[in-house]
């Protein structure tokens, strides 16, 4: 029997890479005829990712990692203007290398019992769809975020055709397919307001979505039924495959974690009563200004709740927790002794899985949201950048699955005060709240979705059939 090879191009950054590789593993677990070649781009500011990628895939021999040759990165000034424009430029500069690599793969497989069946591109890599077309192979797009974000992107080209200008915070609420409520401009991603390449990059990416043969989304039918139904009712949208939650749950030591720190955290959690600790963690790049760090510190102190706080500083490339005393309120560390601990990079999945954790103050990165739903831990929303404000809006206003702290905080915006933080932390830790009940129910639905016969399991089966043409 013919074996099928997929070529997968994950996006840069851990939030994209880890969930992309997990998707690859999920596809392989589903069908033993499949193998996947993953083409890896190495971003200049994520040097430790490479070894992490290897550790994530070591247990799956049918995933082959191919390092693409290095390219000259875009000028660093572009990163300060727009992260999205930087990433898109960076990805585009890889196109010639991807073409050559794919030509080599295809010719090495000629006269074998393996054929390349198709491509999966992270949504930041849709500029590579033309490569798939040149080889007459179907391109699929992987959305590492949710169906709400997909709705925004599907709507963007239409809006751009009507009003070809960046959006403004003062714009009226917009009707976006896949949302029940009109969406306030203040919760839209930074990129859509960015005149320095961010808006243009998003539009360019969004314009290619219709060229995918299918769109794979890290969500599940029970979580976003309304959005998924609205897409399947629209024949202009390629088929959408909700395959999530696709999560990396088996703790793989991250290069940023020091073993002593990890042991210390887990030992401390073991000593705490059930659901008594709030966890604060803000993703791979989430950091705050010193005045905001102070407010957070005063807020958790005021709440009286035990806590584990993963904290980083702006401009600290290794994301390491370096010198807390410079920014924390005076005497804070002494006062919280026994009540709370702080760390740099946290073993987030292990922490969320721990029985001592009762709530999670999160930046609302989609992987963090799915992880907390998986373990039934309710979130307090503290979005910072990317599409996190939209995720916060979705979780609070549309799905009732999170406690609102802020929906529209962004870097450089008004400070979130200690009082507001204390209130929302106390609220999320209530043992009998409606939000906690709903989160527990959704947790069970998410776990069922990926089990044999569940909605996402069925969707993956369909996806593989569609890619390989074996209906
Ligand atoms: N993580 C840790 N320890 C930490 C911080 C993060 O283990 O101290 C893990 C976390 O468990 C998760 C991942 O890192 O698996 C972070 O992913 P996510 O929550 O999605 O945040 P980002 O890394 O910020 O993700 C980017 C975007 C986000 C988007 C996501 C998926 O910032 O807005 O939803 O990509 O597209």
TrEMBL record:
Catalytic reactions of this protein: an anthocyanidin + UDP-alpha-D-glucose + H(+) = an anthocyanidin 3-O-beta-D-glucoside + UDP
Pathway: Pigment biosynthesis; anthocyanin biosynthesis
UniProtKB keywords: Glycosyltransferase, Transferase
Family membership noted in the UniProt record: Belongs to the UDP-glycosyltransferase family.
Protein source organism: Populus alba x Populus x berolinensis
Enzyme Commission designation: 2.4.1.-
Classification via InterPro entries: UDP-glycosyltransf_plant, UDP_glucos_trans, UDP_glycos_trans_CS
Pfam family, one: UDPGT
Keyword Lyase: no
Top-rank EC class of the record's enzyme: transferase
Name by which UniProt lists this protein: Glycosyltransferase
Gene Ontology molecular-function annotations: anthocyanidin 3-O-glucosyltransferase activity
Segments forming a coiled coil: none
């Amino acid at each position: 029997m013919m074996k099928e090879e997929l070529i997968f191009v994950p996006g840069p950054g851990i939030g994209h890479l880890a969930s992309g590789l997990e998707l690859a593993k999920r596809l392989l677990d589903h069908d033993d005829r499949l193998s996947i070649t993953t083409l890896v781009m190495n971003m200049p500011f994520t040097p430790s990712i490479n070894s992490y990628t290897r550790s994530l895939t070591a247990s799956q021999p049918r995933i082959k990692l191919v390092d693409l040759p290095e390219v000259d990165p875009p000028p660093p000034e572009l990163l300060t203007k727009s992260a999205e424009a930087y990433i898109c430029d960076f990805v585009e500069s890889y196109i010639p290398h991807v073409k050559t690599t794919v030509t080599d793969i295809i010719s090495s497989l000629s006269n074998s019992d393996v054929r390349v069946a198709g491509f999966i591109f992270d949504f930041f890599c849709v500029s590579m769809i033309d490569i798939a077309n040149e080889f007459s192979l179907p391109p699929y797009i992987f959305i590492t975020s949710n169906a709400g974000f997909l709705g925004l992107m599907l709507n963007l080209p239409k809006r751009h055709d009507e009003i070809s200008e960046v959006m403004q915070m003062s714009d009226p609420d917009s009707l976006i397919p896949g949302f029940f409520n009109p969406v306030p401009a203040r919760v839209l991603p930074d990129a859509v307001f960015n005149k320095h390449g961010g808006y243009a990059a998003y539009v360019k990416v969004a314009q290619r979505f219709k060229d995918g043969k299918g769109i794979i989304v890290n969500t599940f039918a029970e979580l976003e039924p309304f959005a998924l139904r609205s897409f399947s009712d629209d024949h202009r949208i390629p088929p959408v495959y909700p395959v999530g939650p696709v999560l990396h749950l088996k703790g793989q030591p991250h290069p940023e974690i020091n073993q002593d720190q990890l042991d210390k955290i887990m030992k401390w959690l073991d000593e705490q009563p059930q659901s008594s600790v709030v966890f604060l963690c803000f993703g791979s790049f989430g950091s705050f200004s010193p005045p905001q760090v102070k407010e957070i510190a005063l807020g958790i102190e005021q709440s009286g709740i035990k806590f584990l706080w993963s904290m980083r500083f702006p401009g600290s490339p290794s994301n390491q927790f370096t010198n807390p005393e410079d920014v924390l309120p005076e005497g804070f560390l002494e006062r919280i002794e026994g009540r709370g601990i702080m760390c740099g990079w946290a073993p987030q999945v292990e922490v969320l899985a721990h029985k001592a954790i009762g709530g999670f103050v999160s930046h609302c990165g989609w992987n963090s949201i799915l992880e907390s739903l998986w373990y039934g831990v309710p979130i307090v929303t503290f979005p910072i950048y990317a599409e996190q404000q939209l995720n916060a809006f979705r979780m609070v206003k549309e799905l009732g699955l999170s406690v609102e702290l802020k929906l529209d905080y962004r870097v450089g915006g008004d400070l979130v005060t200690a009082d507001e933080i204390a209130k929302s932390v106390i609220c999320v830790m209530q043992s009998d709240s409606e939000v906690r009940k709903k989160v527990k129910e959704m947790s069970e639905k998410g776990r069922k979705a990926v089990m044999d016969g569940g909605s996402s399991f069925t969707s993956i089966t369909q996806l593989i059939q569609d890619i390989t043409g074996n209906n």
